[in-house]
Write a structure and sequence with these properties.
Structural class: mainly alpha
Radius of gyration: 52 Å
Number of strands: 4
Strand content: under 5%
CATH class of one domain: Mainly Alpha
CATH topology of one domain: DNA polymerase, domain 1
CATH architecture of one domain: Orthogonal Bundle
Shape: rod-shaped
Number of helices: 8
CATH superfamily of one domain: Photosystem II 12 kDa extrinsic protein
Largest sheet: 2 strands, parallel
Order of helices and strands: HEHHHEHEHHHE
Helix content: 40-55%
Amino acid sequence: MLKKVLAGFSVIGGCFLCFALVAALITVAPDVSSAASKKKAEAASTSTVDINTADQKALEALPGIGAATAKAIIAGRPYKSVDDLKRVKGMSDKKINTIRNKVTVGAAATPAPSATPAPRATAAEKKAPVAEKAAKTKSSKSAGKLAPGQKVNINTASQQELEALPGIGPKKAQDIIKGRPYDKPEDIMKVKGIKQGIYNKIKDNIVVK
């Protein structure tokens, strides 16, 4: 009989021991979870957010900063101090003081350098093309001069060949071509603008056959 009683007490003691272990586990688990959450919160509170570089999500994590205010902060960059946040819509002095210890002001992102403008041409460089063009014109005129004893057939010559005659420019050369044919060299004076003076200069250089 005594053995049965002792066995009963042993079973009851075992049950109480199990209940005690379960209760201890239930009590410890929240404490561990609470400690982890507290540690995470402390880490978040000690980290600062750079208002010049933080993304919208990081800014929204600050107290009192919503999506609209975070976007406005990003749009208002760069900032030289935390107080510059006053120019952001929705940022009151109270709100700025609330986050003052949680934010920092780093260097703003440096914009990409713009393309270096091409250097302006100097006065000498501007004159160079003009001088070159004048030299070419002078050279072409020199090249168009008649060789000694050379004759130009005013009935068949090209405009360039006619322009080589003294006093004959592009307009007169075209008029000479339009006035063809000519029976004798003197007939060239029928062309408008070609009078005796010009004829005397070119008569030794023109032929009609």
